[in-house]
Amino acid sequence: MASFLINGGHRLAGEHTLQGAKNSALPILAATVASGGECIIHRCPALTDVEATLNILRHLGCGVQREGNTITVDASSLQRGQIPEALMHEMRSSIVFLGPLLSALGRAELSAPGGCEIGMRPIDLHLEAMQALGVEIHQAAGRLFFRAEGGLRGGRLALSFPSVGATENLMIAAATAKGITVLTNAAREPEIVDLANFLNACGARILGAGGGTLLIEGVQKLHGAEHTVIPDRIAAVTYLSATAITQGELLLRGAAPAHMDAVLAVLEQTGCRLRRLPEGLHLRAPHRLHRLPTVRTMPYPGFPTDAQAGVMTLAAVGDGTSMITETIFENRFRHVSELRRMGASIRVEDRVAVVEGVPKLHGAQVDACDLRAGASLVVAGLAAEGDTRVCSIRHVDRGCEQLELGLSALGANIKREETDGEH
Ligand code: UD1
Questions:
Q1: Domain co-membership, 291 together with 305
Q2: Residue with CA nearest ligand 1 atom 8
Q3: What values do phi and psi take at 46, rounded to 5?
Q4: Which end of the chain is least crowded, N or C, by CB within 10 Å?
Q5: Pairing of β 180-184 and β 295-296
Q6: pLDDT tens for residues 58-70?
Q7: Regarding predicted confidence, which is higher, 422 or 168?
Q8: Verdict on whether the full-model pTM lies above 0.85
Q9: How remote is the CA of residue 411 from the centroid of ligand 1, in Å?
């Protein structure tokens, strides 16, 4: 199995061009199914989650071609409405095929999705969203069957929590439902806006994306479109943290600072100097990071849960005590035990981590446990004394495009190794 071997203590400096956002590319690729035509999607990152999405598209009968970071999907040849369990289990986001299949075929058959083990991750809100559009659901032998007799109908729904995935499924399905749909307490993430822009380019009429209320006027049919995915604000956190923790300097080309206000405010308070330039975001790190201000993960525009592990690594070597509260997922402190192996001083009480910064971490063998946790352990390894081996990096490959190449180009000493045994 693959692992990263990192020799820490090398300052990062230089430029990096940010990848496209995984969390935008996945729902947009799934939404191509609803378009019924040919879609050309640019800036799709080379990630295993994107590959898993393409495998589902192929299974459904769509034509798929990849040329560099541009993926062309021809959804006119869609044949099936079922996704087998094995494909569903490859990643949690496979649930975002539900809305597209119902839009295209009026039926779908799925099983519960897989993905990172960062908590319960139920799908009740997705089901509620589909029911609001007149979809009937029944369950048998671990499979879920969805049917919209007579087609999808617009409806009103107030989400009890602004779930990103449920908002996406509803937007896609409602785009071709009969009549108007109003969704309140919708998720407001930049990836929601990106998906709405893509759907609108396909002929949908979605208003209000980025705000708490969405108004979707159903149209009879969508068509294919060309679209460029927004830059990845979470991969940005990995590169910015890696630079900050090694007292480095970075120009992150293509970054969209407007999507990252909450994270950038935290980085600034650790002493990093940030400049928002036309070509991207520039960071210069201080000699020693200060402690973090109180961080509490929240739905957008609050501090993103996906950036929590990254900034905890900074807190681990910051000057002083930091407090980080995780409110979105209940099992998202799995990196804590691994950071402790590297000499970090972190106490977890329920959903709060209290991090007392130490002057130096030391190298150790650690497990990437989930996608964002894995990337944060790589960041920790870059600053640690000696060698760090980060195992189970298949999780990291789900979200960060060729992380070791990007970091090496900035001066890090990191290599990918294929090892026997259980890494
Ligand atoms: C998306 C992102 C993920 C990010 C998360 C929160 C993608 C592909 N993934 O995941 O990287 O960490 O948003 O910003 O975009 N919930 C329910 N019932 C549901 C759905 C969700 O209770 O039906 C709960 C979840 O268990 C979790 C919270 O709502 O506690 C947030 O989930 P959600 O916003 O749906 O996240 P995802 O769309 O899965």
A1: yes
A2: 23
A3: -85, 95
A4: N
A5: unpaired
A6: 999 999 999 999 9
A7: 168
A8: yes
A9: 35
What domain range is 339 assigned to? 2-19+231-418
- Please say if the pLDDT value at position 363 is more than 70: yes
190 and 295 both lie in a single domain: no
Distance CA 191, CA 232 (A): 9
Q: How confident is the model at residue 302, as a pLDDT? A: 98
Q: Is residue 171 part of a domain?
A: yes
pLDDT(261) > 60: yes
The residue length of the chain stands at 423
As a whole number of angstroms, the distance between CA 221 and CA 232 comes to: 30
Probe ligand 1: pick from 326, 328, 370, 395, max atoms within 8 Å of CB?
Answer: 328
Residues 27 and 162 in one domain: yes
Whether 224 and 235 map to the same domain: the answer is no
- Pairing assessment for the beta strands 352-356 and 345-349 based on DSSP bridges: antiparallel
Boundary (domain end) residue, out of 228, 244, 267: 228
Is residue 15 domain-shared with residue 48, that is, in the same domain?
no
> Which tens digits make up the pLDDT trace of 290-300?
999 999 999 99
CA angle 37/41/47 to nearest 5° reads: 125
**Cα angle for residues 116, 120, 122 (degrees, 5° grid):** 100
Residues 221 and 305 in one domain: no
Cβ 104 under 6 angstroms from ligand 1: no
Atom 22 in ligand 1: residue holding the nearest Cα: 122
From 228, 263, 298, give the residue that closes a domain: 228
Please count the structural domains in the chain.
2
- Which tokens hold the place of 327? 């409110």
Q: Please pick, among 39, 44, 62, 116, the residue that the annotation labels catalytic.
A: 116
Residue 423 inside a domain? The answer is: no
For residues 75 and 157, state if they share a domain. Answer: yes
User: Is 116 a catalytic site residue?
Assistant: yes
Residue 118: pLDDT band by 50, 70, 90 thresholds? very low
pLDDT digits (tens, 9 = 90+) for 165-198: 999 999 999 999 999 999 999 999 999 999 999 9
Looking at residue 169, which CATH number applies to its domain?
3.65.10.10
Side-chain-facing half-sphere of 362: CA atoms under 13 Å: 2
- Per-chain mean pLDDT for the chain: 94
Given ligand 1 and candidates 92, 98, 163, 303, which is best to mutate, with the most ligand atoms within 8 Å of its CB?
Answer: 163
Query: Closest Cα partner for 266 from 240, 247, 287?
Result: 240
Ligand 1 site-directed mutation target among 97, 98, 121, 168, most atoms within 8 Å of CB? 121
Nearest CA to ligand 1 atom 9: 23
